[in-house]
Amino acid sequence: MGMSEIFANFQRGLIAAGHRLRGSAMAFFAILPLIAGLAPTPAAAQGLPLIRDTEIEDLLNDYARPIFKAAGLGSGRVAVRIVNNENFNAFVVDGRSVYIHTGALMQAQTPNEVIGVLAHEAGHIAGGHMAALRARIAQDQTRALIAQILGIGLMVAGGVAGGDSGRDLGGAGQSVLSGGNEVIMRGLTAERRSQESAADQAGLSYLNGTAQSGKGMLTTFERFAGQELFSDQNRDPFARTHPVATDRLARLRKLVEGSPYYAATDPPALQLRHDMMRAKLSGYIENPQTVMNRYPSTDQSAPARYARTVARFRMVGSGGLDGALAQADQLIKSDPQNPYFYEVKADFLQKSGRFQESIPLLRKALQLRGGDAPLIAVQLAQGMIQSKQPQYIDEAISILRKAITREGENAMAYNMLGQAYYDKGLIPQAELARAQGLFYFGALKQAQEFARRAQAALKPGSPEWVKADDILNYKPQT
Predict the structure, then answer these.
(1) 374 CB burial (10 A radius; 0-12, 13-18, 19+)
(2) To bridge 465 with a disulfide, which of 12, 88, 211, 458 should be the other Cys (CB 3.0-4.6 Å)?
(3) What domain range is 195 assigned to?
(4) Concatenated DSSP letters of 176-236
(5) What is the CATH number of the domain that holds 89?
(6) pLDDT at 184
(7) Is the dihedral of CA 39, 43, 49, 53 positive or negative?
């Protein structure tokens, strides 16, 4: 979806709001306007501030698809998820997702640098490294040892062990506790280094298999090699979680330079998409004045104009919206086949409460994307619902159902569907949709509350009743 300000505490606010939702159905739908534009996703139990955006996800998927295929990970098996964090980092916690920070995307100068990082992380997944690490850790169940492991970065972002115990220990990674079994710790450290080296070699084999250079991977690890001299407390998270020993870097450099694809470069069109992604992230995430300094008015490239357009909208003062809309119109005029320019302009309008004006823009964006863009579809449905025009409700419901078919865990789609059902007076269906939305946001207690209310009014044994029952009987893994 078109980006908006990042609601870092969105999930906490959602859960807090859930405690107040014991009255009328109107009460809980009052929080729905918060879900316009780009917003954090629940990240299940990980507690990570994930964001979503169609343009950026399309690009990352294009980067990852050939790499994952070369790694034997299959089509659609592994997702690339975006973490809103300024540090350069990427990591895996299971075999289903690669997490990459916005900081990594913004600092990477070329597509090949990001592709190299994805190839390395794919090597961890294909090698089953996280499962091996968990098995090793399971040999000693003491919290002190787990805290030490967290402290040296073997578990990224806290809580990756899963369940409440992982969340309880999430803060332990701030420091390495003294004591513990040094023999076990040395073994774990050695195993981690072995895994990093194996991921390097696997990642390079995937790059060679797709006729791509390993320069980007080498550039990334060379960038952080010097940080081995600093403490874990001061090092960038990427350096902490991907320790770069001198001998490892030497082996990596030799393998990269010996590749027949060492001199391969990124296609200009791909480089442009990469630059546009970086500009969009800068516009939405960084301070507007920082954006203006990074992309001065003397720079008339498409990425610079893109960044300044978004920053203009976010600037405080009169004329911000009108100026941003005018600049968005210039972007559209320069490239009328770019769906994301229409989407961004629609995002400005929705953030300003002008929902009905966003509808034709989002229709155009969706049409240019061939109709297959669930996030844009949800944003279109939101514009229809929030416009308060009854003629749009049935269409919005149809759009949201299709989006859910495409993305079964899209919490925002369920939330908007609940609003649409409520507007039609279908209260049980509204409460079920709301329960599903809360469930995928990770707010299980509140989801079960709404599922209970929905089930009481639904026909026993019906598909909807069963969906509510599934939520009521769900037990988190421990």
Answers:
(1) buried
(2) 458
(3) 51-108+111-257
(4) PPS-S-HHHHHHHHHHHHHHHHHHHHHHHHHHHHTT--SHHHHHHHHHHHGGGGS-TTTS-
(5) 3.30.2010.10
(6) 52
(7) negative
Q: How far apart, in whole angstroms, are the C-alpha atoms of residue 192 and residue 172?
A: 19
Is residue 161 within 8 Å of residue 146, measured between CB atoms? yes
Total structural domains within the chain = 1
Q: Are 91 and 73 in contact (CB under 8 A)?
A: no
Q: What would the mean pLDDT of 76-80 be, rounded to a whole number?
A: 87
**How far apart are the C-alpha atoms of 265 and 112, rounded to whole Å?**
8
- What's the predicted TM-score (pTM) here? 0.78
Residue given tokens 């710790």 in the structure block: 185
Q: What is the pLDDT of residue 164?
A: 41
**Of residues 39, 47, 41, 31, the one with CA closest to residue 2:** 39
Average pLDDT over residues 88-114: 92
Q: For the segment 279-294, what is each residue's pLDDT rounded down to a tens digit?
A: 999 999 999 999 999 9
Q: Which is more confident, 74 or 353?
A: 353
Question: What DSSP element (H or E) covers 274?
Answer: helix 268-285
DSSP 456: H
Q: What is the CA radius of gyration of the chain?
A: 24
64: in domain: yes
pLDDT at position 293: 97
Q: Under a CB-based contact definition with an 8 Å cutoff, are residues 124 and 130 in contact? A: yes
Tokens 């895996």, located at residue: 92
Task: Give domain status of residue 241, yes or no.
Answer: yes
In a domain? residue 230:
yes
Give ∠ CA 389-363-353 in degrees, rounded to 5: 50
Question: DSSP label at 459?
Answer: P
